[in-house]
Amino acid sequence: MKLTWHGNAALLVEAGEETVAFDPFTGIPAGAAHPEPDAASAAAFRAAKAVFATHGHFDHIMQIPALYARGTVPIYATDTPCRTLARRGVPAERLHRLAPGDEIRLGALTIRAYQGRHCRFDAALIARTACAPRVWKNALHALRLLYWNRIYPENGETVFYELRADGKRLEIMGSMGLDGATEYPAGADALVLPFQGRSDPARLGETLVARLQPKAVLLDHFDDSFPPLTATVDTAAFEALIARRYGIPCRTLGRGETIAI
Q: Rounded CA gap, 137 and 28, in Å?
């Protein structure tokens, strides 16, 4: 398997003849009223043969209509993002509803969905964001982003994906949360871990690594992908912590970087 990150939680996975997109949202420049995916990433994502969404927030599915409204590429998601995408012009026959426990086979690639959880934005993060000078300097755009977050609901439907191909296992999380009642497969060759959405991402991230016991951790969603409500998160201390306590590699993904799993 090969993995390429395109910003935020946007990933392309290649296995055999298959190229599959996950959460193909490449970011929103400050002040953009009608965000479009950047040209380079859009070209890469349009080559995907299937699309999967981890959940329905705008920064995971908002650019799907622009990328895939035309053509025949199937889009897999839970009920809420499917309904949101249908309202935004994606033909119903292209939308394939999935639920935790479903397994999709695409050539050499097998993708299994598990119940996940979205992280809860804690009071410290909310206060820090609300008081940031650039939020007030860009208040209109901040309100626009909050409005988009409202009309792109998650509804408790965040999904955790396990991918299997070529004797390797890759786990993809769309947010820093796991379901307490779900038994997840441990020991994956790599875990893609979103590193944003909390004031204490290192503490929460360590509990997720301890539970899933991956052989390597790859961090995404740490970037400033929709300012002014986001900011680039410093991951260095967490990377060192995971290496020291668990003896496994942990690093950020580079935008446009392709790595072999």
A: 17
